[in-house]
Structure formats: structure tokens, C-alpha cells
Amino acid sequence: MERVLGVSGRAGALLDGVSLEMTGKDAPRLEEARDGITPGTRINVTYLAGEDPGMRLTAARAVRGHGFVPVPHLSARRLPSSAELERFLAGLAEAGAVQNVFVVGGDPARPEGPYEDALSVIRGGLLQRYGVRHVGVCGYPEGHPAIDDDTLWSALTDKAAALEEAGLAGEVITQFGFDADAVLGWLEALRGRGVHLPVRVGVPGPAGVRRLLGYATRFGVGTGATVARKYGLSLTNLMGTAGPDRFLDALADGWDPARHGTVKLHFYTFGGLRPTAEWITRYRQERG
Predict the structure, then answer these.
(1) Nearest in space to 57 (alpha carbons), one of 42, 45, 43, 41
(2) pTM for this predicted structure
(3) From CA 101, how far away is CA 74, in angstroms rounded?
(4) Average pLDDT of the residues of the chain
(5) Most exposed among 104, 124, 160, 179, judged by the fewest C-beta atoms under 10 Å?
(6) Handedness of CA 51, 271, 222, 151 (dihedral sign)
């Protein structure tokens, strides 16, 4: 049925069940934004190096307390021990925030403990023991600056298989990008490799151009002149702002569920939770 929808209809379908991202320090900003966020929205709580487990637990409690679904991040290579992972999972369970997690390898070149990558956390058995039921994993439509494509594909297919073997539901959340064509091509390649998990396409929320370009440089996201022009980024006006209107229009225009599978959106709130929530509301109304 989705294939007969027009572009506006497909854009609305992509926005159905959208998820957001926040940091451990964002609990006050979630309070400010909550009235503009649909109850039951999944909100990921990131695992930043400068934030301790207590801050992450407080943020997860705030997400749940406001009527949303907390999805705490676990950074495998930043976990100093299995005991530390158990303490964090136990805290999440006590807060009623343990059913959904997002597992990422993490930035350190060398593991700080026993977990070399996300796969080792998934295979470790602790997630199920503490009540995790759904696990998100990473996808990189434009590759990774420090990991070759063959390794990325192998890791993703292994994680999908491990989730199935463990009896855990899952999804892929992609790195953000500015090129809808690259995302659509990656989705088709993913399905061709036999991975049929739902995918949440990472979308940069509205933010200043300078900030967006800074994050793009940090994460190896392409910002060539052609891509920037299609997205609506001005490389000569770094004081301006940009939203993902054109990106989502192009994604909706090219999305074919028969080829690309189940796709939703995940917003990286670079410009703040409230501006992102307001942008989503406006875009949904305009495309409705």
C-alpha cells in the first residue's frame, strides 16, 4: 500500500514513529521540549565520554518520567569491566528503562575493558539477563573514517545474526548524512546482503551551518559542493541555519519499501531538542 502513496504521503510514513537523541545533560531541555514531542517517542540517551553513568541514568529516568521510551547507549570499548556494565544495566532496570538499548563500538582505539566491539556486548548474555528486549546497532551509509567498508558490512551482518540468535529484536540506526541518494543506495545494498532489520535513517535536526559542517567533518560525512547544494547548505554563509527539508523530500521520493524495507527516521538534535521537535511538527503539517 505504501508504494502508491505520493511523496507527501511517504514523507508522513517516514515520520511515523520518529525517534530523537539527547545527552545526559539534556534533561532540562527535554522538560522544555516535551509538550511538542509525541508521547511514546523513543529518545536515545548518548554515551559521551564526559558524562558518568549517574547522569545517563538520571536522563533515562527523565525520558521515562515524561512519557517517552528511553533508549540508553552502551559504548562497548568505554566499558571498563563487565561488572560496570552490570551495574549500569541494573540501574536501568530499577528505573524501568532497560528494555531498549543502543550498542555502539565507541571511539577509543583500544578497549578500556573486556568489550572490543558492540558484537561482544550482544553475545555476552548480560543484556537479556537484565531485561533488554530490543537492541539498536550502527549503520554507516557513507562509510566510517577509521573503518573500511568490508569490515563495516561484516560487522553489521554479524550483529544482525547475533541478535536473531539471542532472541533480541533490533534495528539499525544510521549515522547522519546530507545525501539521500547515498542513503537509498546503502539501504538497497543492506537488503541485498540479507539484513532485514528495520532501519532508522539518521537525520540532522535544524542547526547552524557551521555546527553541521563541524559534526560532518568529525564523523566523515560528505559535504562536497553538489551534496551541500542539494541539501541546502551554504558553504559561503556559515552563519546561516539549515534544516533537512530537501533531504527528507528526496528520501521520501526515492523510498520504495519493496527495495529498501522498513524505514523510519532518527533525529540528531544538533540544534536542540525543542527546535527539532518544532521542526518535525511543522514539516509534518506542511507535508500532510
Answers:
(1) 45
(2) 0.92
(3) 7
(4) 89
(5) 124
(6) positive
